[in-house]
Amino acid sequence: MEDSFSDRLSGAMEKSYVLFSRVERSMLTRSKRLNLSVSELGFIEEINKNPLVGKTIGEIASELMITPASVTAMANKLEKKGYVTRRRSLSDGRQVFVRLTDSGKRADRIHKRFHRSLADAISMNMSENEKNLLVSCIDRINVFLNARLKKMEEFKS
């Protein structure tokens, strides 16, 4: 019996996830310039979405869907490594802003360059139509996953 499309798609997504994670971990392991984990890089990437002001502990927790305590622990770790700084808000002392240091900004640039080179290599021999179709399919996957996460968060509340 032939595999259904859903089975083939599921298998392909699982394999892609595992391979992408292994390639990213391997890149970090081999890097002499970065002493970061994949999750630490994700944290840095999130902070750099607002590079001038930084992000509050609550904003980071919400975006990464983790607890504020986990964000604080990660911020402590990355502050010791020299990738972030923390500052209390001048207008509201309860808020703590996390910002990237120059080392944190450099790590984010290296990580973005890695992702760009992966995307360039994947799409190297694709036509413009194939490239557009691939991005459209990934966008659809992301819409579905975001909707699923939203439902799960509503159910949890």
How is this fold's topology laid out?
Layout: H1 5-30, H2 38-47, E1 55-56, H3 57-64, H4 68-81, E2 84-88, E3 96-100, H5 102-122, H6 128-156
Antiparallel strand pairs: 1-3, 2-3
Helix pairs in contact: 3-4
Description:
The chain is mainly alpha-helical and 157 residues long. The protein has a single domain (7-122), classed as Arc Repressor Mutant, subunit A (Orthogonal Bundle), CATH 1.10.10.10. Helices cover 69% and strands 8% of the residues. Strands 1-3-2 form a three-stranded antiparallel β-sheet. Helix 3 packs across helix 4 (68-81). The protein starts with a helix and ends with a helix.
Quick take:
With 157 residues, this protein is mainly α.
Q: What oligomeric arrangement do these chains adopt?
A: single chain
Structure class? mainly alpha
Q: State which percent range the strand residues make up.
A: 5-15%
- CATH overall fold name: Arc Repressor Mutant, subunit A
> What is the alpha-carbon Rg in Å?
19 Å
| Number of beta-strand segments | 3
Give the strand line-up of the largest sheet. Answer: 1-3-2
